[in-house]
Structure formats: C-alpha cells, structure tokens
Amino acid sequence: MGENVSPEERKRIGQRCRERLYDNAVRNAEAARNGETARQIATVDELCHQSGLSKNTIYKLHSGEFSVRTLRLVEGLIGPVSGEASSQNGSGADVAKGVTASTQVLSGGYSLSDISRYLGVFLTVRQGTTVRENLLTTIMRVRWDADRSIARFYEDIRYTSSNGKAQDYSQSGTLHMSQGIGTIHFLTSFQGAIRLMTTTPMQPMAPVMYGAILTQVPMAGHHVPTSSVVHLRRIFEDPNSTPKSMTGVVRPGSPRFKELSSDLGDAREAILAR
What we know:
Number of helices: 7
Structural class: alpha+beta
Shape: globular
Oligomer: single chain
Order of helices and strands: HHHHHHEEEEEEEEEEEH
Strand order of the largest sheet: 1-2-3-6-7-8-9-10
Largest sheet: 8 strands, antiparallel, barrel
C-alpha cells in the first residue's frame, strides 16, 4: 500500500486493526477454554510491547493516521488489515461475498442502521447456575463486523467460584434478529455446543433488555442443560470502551446485590409473566 490512500480507506484500515485485536481476544478466550497456551496479540499494550510503537501511534493508526512503515510493522504482528492479501485474482472477494450473503440471510438480513442501538458495552445480570442465591454479572461487547455485514458479540465471563477456583466461560458469537418477531438472539456455536440468549428489543425508556439463556453447565463429570433469566443494560455506546471491573459473583449482603436483584426481578417479570 502506498501513501496515496483515501481518508475513508485509512479509517477502514484503522477500524480493521481494532477489530483484529477484538477477534484475537475472542480466539484467546476460546483457546483458554480448550486448555491451549497459544496466545495472539489482543490488546494495545501487547501490540506496543511487541512492535516497540507507542500507544499514541497505535491510537492514531486506529483513527486512520499512520505511515506505511507503521502499518507494515503492525500487519507483521497481527496479520493483514489493509485488504491487499484478499485480492488474489478476485476469487477471495467472490468467496467473501458469498459468505457474507449467506450470513446475512441466516442472521435475519438486518443492516447496520437496524442494529445500531444494540452496539456497545452491556452489563448482564443473571442468577448463579450452581449457587442459585448468588448473582453473576458479566460484560458483553457487541460490534458491527463490516466484512461480514453482521453484528458480533464477546461476553467476558471470568470469575472466582465459591470454592476459590478461577472460572472462564467466556462466549463469543453472532447476533440474530428477526424483523417479523422482533426478538434479539445472541448465538454461540462452538464444536457442536450451543448457547442461546434470547432477549426483548431495547426498551423505549431505558437502554435495557430482558431475556433468557439456554446453555449447559458441568455437573459431576458431565454437562446438563440449564436456563436462566438475564437482564442486560447498555453502559457504553462504544464497544471499544473499557469499563471498570464490574463483573463476577455478587453474593447476598453485597452493596450491589439489592439493585441487581431488582434489575433481575424486572427481567423475570417481563419474561415469565406472559
């Protein structure tokens, strides 16, 4: 890529760089669940450490301000983001178009404008799956994947269990929306295992959604199906925002327990009172 690149393309390259780091974070979470130790660069700090570039330089790249040298250095670490690698004889583009069209149909055929209010950072609250009197809070990021024309999510589900063990059930997947039904579906499909979170549309008076999760949890050497009501509240519109630590197990007596229980009660009434 030469220096003569349009501002619009520069911004797209910067956005793809941010998305690549995001995708790597998802892959790292999946690798950790499988007990794999390989880790890809997934944060600005890691990218700075490996490249020797400053944070300011990386943030400028994200906004579309970069030199060819900087871009090549970054692509050498996280892979191509300038789009040149996918233009071999046009065949890669043709395949990508076919994949995108198929993905759009399966996800409901929504556009970026249809889904824009569902992009951002959400705080989710649900009942504990093993100790039912506890609550579990997680952070879920939803962003638009311009290459696939679909919204994707990553839910950070890392916490310390009641027996002191570190748990990581982080999820990632795609957002599905039926224009006719109106419900929102967050689907994880990984090696035959499915987790489905189905929610109401965003409420008109507040950025919240009410829903239910169907998944499976380990129990005595095997997995069993389980379900839980869930409350989602958007806390940032920018999916790249980094909220303070708000996740983990919330036990009765915690200062947050009463407020979160009220949110979950609203969700339970909205879902189960039908």
